[in-house]
Write a structure and sequence with these properties.
single chain, alpha/beta, 5-stranded parallel sheet, 5 strands, globular
Length: 110
């Protein structure tokens, strides 16, 4: 079971869907709301042993530089409807989970 933390640029529905798939997940809005900083997200992921899923390149860069930080899934798609995003992510989840299992620090998907 992999725990996930979903960043603000992605819909809260992604966290609910991941939880329904057996992967505990929370969205930034679940614990911090609009005022949550990237450091807050990073530290929350460290505290809860969660993988950050974000469209923010800053997390991927920080993840590449930090051997002991959380793993990061960097989503590199343009803006899309929530339904299309969810279907796209559902198809990629097995390969994302496999990359996380292999210990990859940053998984870039586009």
């Amino acid at each position: 079971m992999t725990r996930f933390l979903i960043d603000a640029q992605l819909p809260p529905a992604l966290a609910r869907w991941l939880t329904a798939q057996g992967h505990p997940a929370e969205h930034v809005f679940d614990f911090g709301g609009d005022g949550t900083t990237d450091n807050d997200v990073w530290n929350r992921a460290l505290d809860t042993d969660a993988v950050i899923i974000s469209k923010d390149e800053g997390f991927s860069l920080r993840g590449m530089r930090s051997a002991d930080g959380p793993q990061v899934v960097w989503i590199r798609t343009g803006n899309t409807r929530r339904t299309a995003l969810m279907q796209w992510f559902a198809e990629l989840l097995p390969s994302v989970l496999a990359a996380l299992e292999r210990g990859e620090r940053v998984i870039e998907i586009s």
